[in-house]
Write a structure and sequence with these properties.
The complex is a heterodimer of chains A (472) and B (234). By secondary structure, chain A is α/β, with parallel strands linked by helices. In chain A, 52% of the residues lie in helices and 11% in strands. Classes of the chains: A alpha/beta (472), B alpha/beta (234). The interface between A and B is large, with 105 and 86 residues. Strand 9 of chain A pairs antiparallel with strand 9 of chain B, so a sheet runs across the interface.
């Protein structure tokens, strides 16, 4: 899937006009963020665990070559194979080669963001191999030919009705008059459809939440159990991961797991956390005979140690999306690629270049909520500002923007003048609004007022209010 | 492909020595800390609730497992297990069919006394209704079961049947995940192998679920809809 990040503005207009999307997204605030804060409150050590989780990743990045080599040798010892890929294209052809070598016709897949990043499904399809997404959300968007709109809840942009319509359109072998009015009915239908696929697949393709250097294990985290059916039933298990997913030991993985689910869905622990080491042992009763791990760079080594090094600590929990005031209004598709929200806006320019994706860094209020909830304390706002600056330095900005910035920076360096000018503007706005509290229309702000009312400033400038408080 | 490998490592090393660790020239001393970390695998912070005494530990395990929709029962000995399983299947209107892991048959559980129950042994085949297996350990912190794959404990039993019944000895309910790793490491010390983990170590915290349709939580996505834990007090 080619990124449409360049069309960000059009994407946003479409998103805001989409009624289904705003209904679907309206449930986000009561959902994940509320659950997260409950889980955090139940664990007094949570903040300390975040610090430790970050320290582990900082240490890993400084010793990345050591841990990758250690991991590789452990995988080989346990009977697995390791494949190194520089780019998305290399990863695609490696995976295709392995699936062809075992004569695969169908590949079951559990959710993998790196799989989305390298567009593995399209590649397999083009070469006559059927990829079957098995995570319920991924299954739904695969039927609809869409990208995930959230890194952990890929179908969060859809209402139940839309899912029902999709199932009716795609599951043509089922009775057309069947009832699909409850989430349970939709789940059962998807479960039945996928059951046979699990049992017949030739290859199971999974991502990896972590790679453990000490043991050569991969860690898989799901709630549905689909990853476990994906790797345990076919003869071949292929896992794909970008190279920064590595952690030193089982103990370090455990620390990160303590903050992962709590930050993501607010669960204390996801339902299924699995550690896979090599292929099945000779006398095991089930499990894959072949185990391959495909380790992908695709831009990560360029980020290492640089301004965006922090981003390599991301554990893909989705907390920054769930708490972002921009994401909550526009959803994930507007960002134009497989990643979205603050982590997407920070990561994407590293992968496809700032020229194609500069809008994303500007689509942020820099409110800081993302950094506040990030389990790895990644400085997302700082990096978004860096992208803005890099883009500003490299490109001509329209002369009107330049002029406005000049005026603003002039005012900002003369505080009393700044306060004087803005107190006049505020007073003017208040008097024009005639106490309605909001504007339906405003010159120069039509793009905003088309979809939202513009609130009238209340109570003067910040300094005015500060001084008034001090007098009290 | 080794060309790709070499290039990736060269790039990673260049980035580290340029930006992250320029002070340490020789890679020997550079890796000292990392080597120790792998060899000593130090335990990081374990929350207080993962460090309780034995009785409190089992109680916490039960509370946490029930919070995530598992059902839990305690029995005083192995001989009581068949009756307990039949009771559970009856109460939930489930067929009197059970696929058990060979590991549990070794424990000589007297299934035969339950004439209504039809017991078979082996891996899951997609047609089973309920499975019965043995957990290697329980983790009190989050009500998590730890199940290992092996020649007598097939992984599919934990995921394919819609109903999973799992027994765990009370003495194997530990405080934290770290204690489980320690136990696994100890038991492997004898054979001297670097590969001390079985193919799969499965942490199971409640029955399968999804929230992918309008964030409504539904149990029984692809894995079991029911998880019944039988604790054997020993």
């Amino acid at each position: 899937m080619d990124p449409t990040t360049e069309n960000f503005k059009t994407n946003v207009r479409k998103a805001i006009a989409d009624n289904n999307l705003s209904i679907a997204l309206s449930k986000l605030s009561e959902g994940f963020p509320a659950q997260r804060s409950k889980a955090v409150n139940r664990l007094p050590e949570f903040e300390d665990l975040r610090d430790q989780a970050r320290e582990i990743k900082e240490h890993v990045l400084k010793n990345l070559d050591f841990y990758l080599e250690k991991f590789e040798s452990r995988v080989l010892e346990s009977g697995g194979k390791v494949h190194w890929c520089r780019s998305a294209a290399e990863a695609r052809s490696t995976i295709l080669r392995i699936t062809r070598a075992v004569g695969a016709k169908t590949v079951t897949k559990s959710k993998s963001m790196i799989g989305e990043e390298i567009s593995i499904n399209e590649h397999l399809e083009q070469h006559g191999i059927e990829p079957v997404e098995t995570d319920l959300g991924e299954y739904i968007i695969q039927l609809r030919n869409e990208k995930p709109s959230h890194i952990i809840a890929p179908a969060i942009h859809l209402t139940m009705k839309q899912v029902a319509n999709t199932f009716r359109k795609k599951h043509l072998h089922l009775a057309p008059e069947r009832s699909l009015n409850k989430p349970r009915e939709l789940l059962e239908e998807a479960r039945d459809e996928l059951r046979q696929k699990f049992l017949c697949a030739d290859v199971g393709l999974t991502g990896a939440n972590m790679l453990i250097a000490e043991t050569g294990s991969i860690v898989l985290v799901t709630n549905e159990g689909n990853a476990d059916l994906t790797y345990s039933l076919p003869k071949t298990h292929i896992a794909i991961a970008s190279l920064e997913k590595i952690v030193p030991t089982l103990e370090d993985a455990s620390t990160i797991l303590r903050v992962l689910a709590r930050s993501a869905t607010g669960q204390e622990m996801s339902v299924y956390t699995t550690f896979c080491t090599g292929p099945k042992r000779s006398d095991d009763l089930d499990g894959p005979e072949n185990f391959h791990i495909v380790i992908i760079d695709n831009g990560r080594s360029d980020m290492l140690g640089g301004e965006f090094n922090d981003m390599l600590m991301c554990i893909r929990c989705g907390a920054c999306l769930n708490h972002c005031p921009v994401y909550k209004v526009i959803g994930g598709h507007a960002y134009g690629w497989v990643y979205s929200g603050p982590m997407g806006a920070t990561l994407i320019p590293n992968l496809i270049g700032i020229d194609k994706s500069h809008h994303l860094a500007h689509a942020s209020t820099l409110c800081g909520k993302c950094e506040e909830v990030c389990p790895m304390r990644i400085q997302l706002p700082r990096m978004l500002r860096s992208w803005r600056q890099l883009y500003f330095e490299r490109h001509r900005v329209t002369s009107i923007s330049r002029q406005l910035l000049k005026i603003w920076s002039f005012l900002a360096t003369w505080p009393s003048l700044y306060r004087f000018v803005f107190s006049i503007i505020i007073a003017a706005l208040v008097s024009i609004s005639r106490k309605r509290g909001r504007f339906k229309k405003m010159p120069f702000f039509s793009k905003w007022t088309k979809n939202f009312d513009l609130p009238v400033p209340e109570g003067g400038t910040f300094i005015d209010r500060w001084n008034r408080r001090k007098q009290l | 492909m080794s060309e790709a490998r070499d290039e990736i490592f060269a790039q990673v090393r260049a980035a580290i020595s340029k930006n992250l660790d320029a002070t340490l020239e020789s890679s020997q001393s550079r890796f000292a800390e990392a080597k120790n970390r792998i060899n000593d695998h130090p335990v990081n912070l374990v929350p207080a609730r993962g460090r309780l005494g034995k009785k409190a530990r089992v109680d916490l395990f039960i509370r946490e497992a029930e919070r995530v929709n598992a059902t839990v029962v305690r029995v005083s000995g192995l001989s009581l297990v068949p009756r307990e399983v039949v009771k559970f299947l009856t109460n939930n209107n489930l067929p009197m069919l059970l696929k058990v892991s060979p590991e549990t048959s070794e424990k000589r559980i007297a299934w035969k006394n339950q004439t209504l129950l039809k017991v078979s042994e082996g891996r899951a085949d997609g047609k089973d209704f309920s499975s019965f297996s043995l957990a290697y350990a329980g983790v009190a912190e989050t009500g998590t079961l730890v199940v290992l794959s092996g020649r007598k404990s097939p992984t599919t039993l934990n995921f394919l049947p819609p109903c999973q019944i799992c027994m765990v000895y009370a003495s194997h309910i530990l405080g934290s995940y770290e204690e489980v790793w320690a136990r696994l490491r100890d038991s492997s010390k004898n054979d001297g192998s670097n590969v001390f983990l079985p193919r799969n170590v499965n942490w199971i915290t409640g029955p399968s679920r999804t929230a992918d349709i309008e964030q409504t939580i539904l149990l029984g996505a692809h894995g079991p809809q029911r998880l019944h834990v039988v604790i054997i007090d020993d």
